Amino acid sequence: MPPEPNYSSWFESIANPNERYKIDEVVYTDTEGGLLQVSHDIEALRQSPPEKWRRLFDERSHKTVWPFGSGVWGKKELVLPNISNKNIVSMYEGHTNLFWAERYGRQLGIEDLWIKLCGNTHTGSFKDLGMTVLISMVKEMLDRGRDIPAVACASTGDTSAALAAYAAAANIPAIVFLPRGKISVAQLIQPIANGAIVFALDTDFDGCMEIVKEVADKDGIYLANSMNSLRIEGQKTVAIEIVQQFDWNPPDWIVIPGGNLGNVSALAKGLDILIELGIIEKKPRIVCAQAHNANPLYKAYLRDFEVFEPMAAGTTLASAIQIGNPVSYEKAVDALRRYDGIVEEASEEELVEASVRADRTGLFNCPHTGVALAATEKLVDREIIRPGDRVVIISTAHGLKFVESKVKYHEMRLDNIDSKWANPEISLPADYGLVRDRMLREIDSRFKGNVR
For a tag on the chain, would you pick the N or C end, based on fewer CB atoms within 10 A? Predict the structure, then answer.
């Protein structure tokens, strides 16, 4: 059971902390149009010492006592303490594994490289962490008598999958707006299969975002994108989980792909509350990795964030971060400044080749993780990340959602990519002699002198 029963949380304006709203109000921005955040009664939380929190979270981890076995709801007091357990909609999200990328790290010259496999979750991406909180709060609001006809999001794939799954579990209508022809088949079929109302619009993500904001404003549809700060509360637990998996010792670096940038601010928010409660003292550095064709944060970073210019995002294989006007830009800049952050970019060739190289060491990366891998490689090459540093790269989604680009790469059909690591299938007659001769040649050419 929780160590204290009377914790509370509320919405608060980032620009004006005196502007507050109840946690069950339908509100997304402050009176000036700025984003909100969920704030907590830190003084009440501090009544329990750090070691008590660590012990509580460790005791709950991976257990079946509802709902605390979830990686998110095991930290309920730090996420959404005001909600009734009966209204929590959970698929026991979180608890995704840290993969020690020993062989890949050795190739890069990093001894302590880890990949946080957030794609190993119910709908295959880290978006589950935020959606369990948002949909649970919607269920709570409905239970309190609020009129919410449906929940909606704009998406480049992963958000829509998470929304559709959690809404289906809660029996709440879900609506998703997708840019037509710009997401993978695997991502498209997820909300369709879960019964969401799916609109494929002739626009990009930013155009879909404008539509969903209109239906939220004019039709009372509840907004489920990351500008809704309930999402950030769930997503921040990835930072808490990473630290917990290292026995409450933070890494030196956390590298995360960035598109709409809610994930960057969420990462910092998770670290913030650990520091505020004295659970950790050390601050990791945060790296946000962007695709070159959708890199407004990177361009702003080059100007010390003094100028921000939204852009029309170009086509990138990292389609989930193909966003030119990120909603959470200001939050992300604040997070990067406070965590001595770096923004790096990756070209299409760089993100593909980094992903392929990592795949050949046992991973199976989505292209967004490829952006983070390529950024990490660049920082290692520049000796910013040092050989003895502990580095965690956040893999945001499962590679199985993006098999089309992988197939094209290995068939050497990916536009403007050399496919130097291509590994196409070998077609032969079913003749033992032919197969044996080719097999031995391949072993010799590929693995002779391999350093294991």
Answer: C
Identify the DSSP state of 314: P
CA 12 to chain centre: 23
Is the pLDDT higher at 182 or at 280?
280
Nearest to 116 by CA among 368, 436, 318: 368
Say if CB 416 and CB 144 are below 8 A apart. Answer: no
**Residue-wise pLDDT tens digits, 195-244:** 999 999 999 988 999 999 999 999 999 999 988 999 999 999 999 999 99
Distances (CA, A) of 206 to 229, 294, 385: 19, 12, 34
Please state the rounded mean pLDDT for residues 129-157. Answer: 96
Distance CA 159, CA 176 (A): 9
Q: Return the DSSP state at 357.
A: H
CA distance 306 to 24: 35
Domains of the chain (ranges plus CATH)? 98-124+232-410 (3.40.50.1100)
CA angle 419, 423, 426 (to 5 degrees): 135
Sign of CA dihedral 266, 212, 159, 58: positive
Q: How far apart, in Å, are the Cα atoms of 104 and each of 113, 230, 360, 363?
A: 8, 36, 8, 9
Measured from the Cβ of residue 413, the count of other Cβ atoms closer than 10 Å reads 11
Q: Is the pLDDT of residue 5 over 80?
A: no
Q: Would you say the C-alpha torsion 42, 45, 48, 49 has a positive or negative sign?
A: negative
Decide: 369 and 257 in contact? Cβ < 8 Å: yes
* C-alpha–C-alpha distance, residues 171 and 302, integer Å: 46
List the helix and strand counts (H, then E) for the chain: 17, 13
Supply the pLDDT for residue 448. 76
Q: Do 121 and 1 touch, CB atoms closer than 8 A?
A: no
The terminus-to-terminus CA distance of the chain in angstroms comes to 48
Q: Tokens 């004295």 correspond to what residue? A: 278
* Contact call for residues 273 and 236 (beta carbons, < 8 A): yes
pLDDT of 327 reads 87
Cβ atoms of 266 and 232 within 8 Å: the answer is yes
Residue with tokens 């710009």: 182
- Tell me the three state secondary structure of residue 441: helix
